[in-house]
Queue: 4 jobs
Job 1
Amino acid sequence: MVDLEISNRGKLLRLFIDKPDGINIDDCALVSNHISRLLAVEMDFDYDRLEVSSPGLDRPLKKESDFQRFIGETAMIKLRMPLQGRKKFEGVLQGVEDGKLQIEIDGNLLRFDLENIDKARLAPKF
């Protein structure tokens, strides 16, 4: 997965990379070197700074496949419309079935419509 942000201020290119078994510093350096050469030689693209990184331990979860990939991990979920009088939940991801995220919170299994999820992030425990 690749996600690109371009900032006009200071001509910053920020590239987030990811792969199923995770990203390390060597992956970032390899991609940074390749992209730098590509932009300089092939595209004649003007920029001041290139940042290549992973989405981080508290990565955002956006697609159904993100929720499936991190089954068993703790996540923070913010809903668009309240459920049981609440919009914010933290629990362990259990999967997605029929367009509904299943998450275990305090021993209870709750289901959220994916369309009702405003923001979701992993919540790593240290």
Note: The mean pLDDT is 88.
Job 2
Amino acid sequence: MASLSGKRIVLGVTGGIAAYKSAELTRLLVKAGAMVDVVLTEAGARFVGATTFQALSGRPVWTSLWDERMPNAMAHIDLTRGADLLLVVPATANFLVKLVHGMADDLLSTLCLARPRAGVDGALRDCPLFVAPAMNRQMWESPATQRNVTQLRDDGLHILGPGSGDQACGEMGDGRMLEAAEIFAALEASLCPKLLARKRVLLTAGPTFEALDPVRGLTNSSSGKMGFALARACAEAGAEVTLVAGPVTQTTPAGVTRIDVTSALQMRDAVLANLGGQNVFIAVAAVADYRPAAPADHKIKKSGQPLSIELVPNPDILAEVASRSDAPFCVGFAAESRNLAEYAEGKRKAKNLALVVGNLVQDGLGGDINAVTLFDAAGAHPLPAAEKLEVARGIVAHIASMLATR
């Protein structure tokens, strides 16, 4: 659904220390099957040389407005003809000024000005322009820079970041360029059909942890990878996403609002507090079925004798949400060790769910690959085994098709 394979990308690199991240981005794009033409400004070449980009892209690097390698010596026009994306990574404060005012004093700025736009000069396709700002925090916070960024957004450019953190100057704050992997993910997201545009999605992910005492507890081996992949896939599809996460180490997907919890009761409270106005609720979390009736105030000391712990049921968050008169479109997950179809379909009917995503724990729990079957009123729909993000995109497409026919 969101493959960069076969795409032709023009990557502009300007003069900032973050140019080293552009080399990693080139590697990621080529690994994904994209064809990358790198355009290096004179200042950019002071940080990373053309030889590096040529080795990573496997293609000639372009540096001069007067380059005669194009048959008509018009690289500033021809390089973006037929290109799917034009990126400037990093985009310095100076280059943002050039874009705002339409300056064209080198190859890269001229390419940006002359890029094809839908319906302009008979262009067959729009070549969207993405820029990843990178600069000192004071430069980023400058009123002039903020005016320029606002104008570029109004002009239809896609601004990626910046992030916040340590900077080469030794300061800390906004202006740090996004990491190459974050930019890569944003490009993938831009290619996804906006199947969930104007929809609000609430998800749960990861395990819960039910304390026995201050240092021990009951939990499970869920990594949260599937839930976080689904949150990313929903955001890619244009949804406004809120993710309630148990104790996991996963990175929050771009554009997703994350709420961290520990126990099942905390997860229930967070879900109910954020349920209003949601169109879809996806319960991916592996919520503990039971919790200790009376957690110890202090560490339980080893005695060598059998230990009995009274457990009480945790609330069934999904069933509670699905039973409401104002329930959103509810999706459940059934991770089983056997009899998948029987148990998953039984769960769907018992909880009155629109959709249940079923999988055998040996096929995906804790790993990077998953194989699932979707169970709805129309029957069972298996998805091929794939990386969890690709599986998540397939689930999102199925949800969108069901929402469209409701």
Note: The mean pLDDT is 90.
Job 3
Amino acid sequence: MNYKAHFTCAEGCGEHYELDEVVYTCKKCGGLLEVTHDMAPLKKTSAKKWKELFDERMRTTVYPYGSGVWGKKEWVLPNIDNENVVSMFEGHSNLFWAKRLEKDLGLKELWIKQCGTSHTGSFKDLGMTVLVSQVNEMIKKGVPLSAVACASTGDTSAALAAYCAFADIPAIVFLPRNKISTAQLVQPIANNAIVLALDTDFDGCMKIVQEVTKDNRIYLANSMNSLRIEGQKTVGIEIIQQLDWVVPDTIIIPGGNLGNVSALGKGLLMMEELGLINKRPRIVVAQAHNANPLYRAYKNGFKDFEPVAAQTTLASAIQIGNPVSYRKAVKMLKEFNGVVEEATEEAIAEASARADRTGLFSCPHTGVAMAALFKLVEQKVIGKDERVVVISTAHGLKFTEFKVGYHESKLPGIASRLANPPVELPADANAVRTVIDREIARRK
């Protein structure tokens, strides 16, 4: 089949561009772009055949189809040469049955999509494999690109650095100084990226990287570049594939720059158009109270949007006050009966700790989504008869300072009611037995 895709203006002005053109916004109206697929050839294959093909490729070693992203290549970047694909077999992350938490909440089913088990520890890998693959193909075809750059609160920079290192393409990352975890900072350093720590926040870094990439010599890798959306949209497809092609009732996702929200919806709409699903889940976006511009807009019916000066939050990767993909996210929320909820810093910490007690190891951003889940179940917005999926965006090991700070009761303003510090006592068997008996009784 001759499958094709290209950039089109997301604002609907009719402009379109080839995927190998260095362009991020519409030259006519300034709107963001999106990758649009020629659906007619795709529709010539039945839904049954698509399901069989995707299942057949799952976890194979045939490059690049063993990837959770490239196993759906026809729906992602159909035109790219397989030789130019830059993949580390990302995707296929675990859909964790949260059995204990499900029971505590009284839900029919609760699943956690653990995107943090990907190569660099976050869902950003899903989009970066697509963007870096396209850049790799452009360079191989003679487009004069010298590097790829991004502004980041941590996870994006880690993914860009790793995939560029794998492809032998220079990477430049702009980070807000002293505002990301050590684990996030060390990843691009280890992968030999050019790391620039700026005295500003994410929004300030974003302004600088947009300025630096204006001459088209350095390629922009932030989520305003819709190539990343094509990879990230596979998370929704993969969730439904893992649920034996049954659509859940509600999917909850943390929201910062909001590219992941629009990506999730885009993948689901594609499934619907090609006949793989016949109903839509509700999408819930969870934001930290300290960085909640989408939540504020939702509360006024999306009539007005005002960027905010994002305050410090434990969920540092979504500490964004002026999300680039706001309009795309609102569009998807309207398509999916969307809900937006917020979580305070204490709720984030407590929700993460509560989830960890049932076998998870949640990053603070997943804590935001969990806090929203708990609140919406309590408010009966999410019914007890629902099948719910929470998207966990990063691995908890990237945020050990957050974990240690909580259990040592050192997080400012957080009561740490579920703290579980080690018990220090002398090397005496009787003293040890006494503590063991006490702690077992306390946990019953």
Note: The radius of gyration is 22 Å.
Job 4
Amino acid sequence: MSDSKIIASEILPIQKIRADFPILSRKINGKTLIYFDNGATSQKPQVVIDAIDTYYKNQNANIHRGVHTLSQKITMAYENARTTIQKHLNAEHAHEIIFTKGTTDSINLVASSFGKKFISSGDEIIISAMEHHSNILPWQQLCEEKGAILKVVPINDEGELVMEEYKKLLNEKTRMVAITHISNVLGTINPVKEIIELAHAKNIPVLVDGAQAVPHTLANMQELDCDFYCFSAHKLFGPTGVGILYGKEKWLNAIPPYQVGGGTIKTVSFDKTEYADLPLKFEAGTPHIEGGIGLAAAINYVNEIGLDNIAAYEHELLAYATEALIKIEGLKIIGTAKNKASVISFIVEGLHPFDIGTILDQLGIAVRTGHHCTQPLMQCYNIQGTVRASFAFYNTKAEIDEFLKGLERAIKMLK
């Protein structure tokens, strides 16, 4: 993360930024919305809303299919969006960027296609104890189908990977490592570069779940050198229903198509089909055209602000909120890693997270409660769930102050 000594609140024009997000002026139960559920989905700036609106008003046509003007122009816009994403990730080729429905779809694509080609009985796949269900279930299902074995890297009490145990798990039977970049519950920023280097030393490919990372930090594919990287547009201030799979060219060429149909082919006969080159090989059917364009608009927007500035400011919010929360009697933060993103999950002794979240909602404060699609992680801490406050660069210390007042009120009401 960026140096916490930077006073990022003096760098970012917060009120101007907030004005870019129409929903932040909305009233919830008579109170101005305080949105601390950014880990679930982010809010959308006006430029993203406008990009989608413009598509349907002035550009609507299918891509890669027509010679008419609308089709040609929207095809160019869509492929320009792909290039924008390629440059943002510093991928080597635009055709290494595959449009999907989201992170879950991207991981399922790799698990299915890679697994079909490269996983056999007795092989091993490594994940971690902090994974989202979306990075557990596809691998678990693949192991059940193929007779492979799922191995899990444990975590310590602070919510950090036990790297010595990870090193022990890597062996000649390991065929894939699938790991989250940033935990959606703990906020832990994993040492993914080291994880990748250790795996590559044994010629093992690595998939990184970047869903929680892309809103907070720059994911540089040349620097990380991962084999696959997955994320969803809606976490990165873009539309829902669209996501990205980055894959190294050699792997994308080596694995079979995930879904087949219109758009994925070169030639079709009843005897044999020849599939298209990348990226179309993995993009069956009419895509979420406006979603891809909206994602590019979101990326351009955050790059104008600067991800380093965003990271520094969010670190400031994280430190401010953490310092106040640890003073509340009976409150325990789940996830205290040294290297952490702007996510705080906590429990309050004797109180159910759902009850706390319900009272906060009455005060116009949106937080997440429950197991956050990480039931195995909850089992590690022997808890049923947490309250999670996740911050974005449009949040403020004043909002955190209101959240703290609301939390103290909820605790008094419930005890």
Note: The chain has a mean pLDDT of 96.
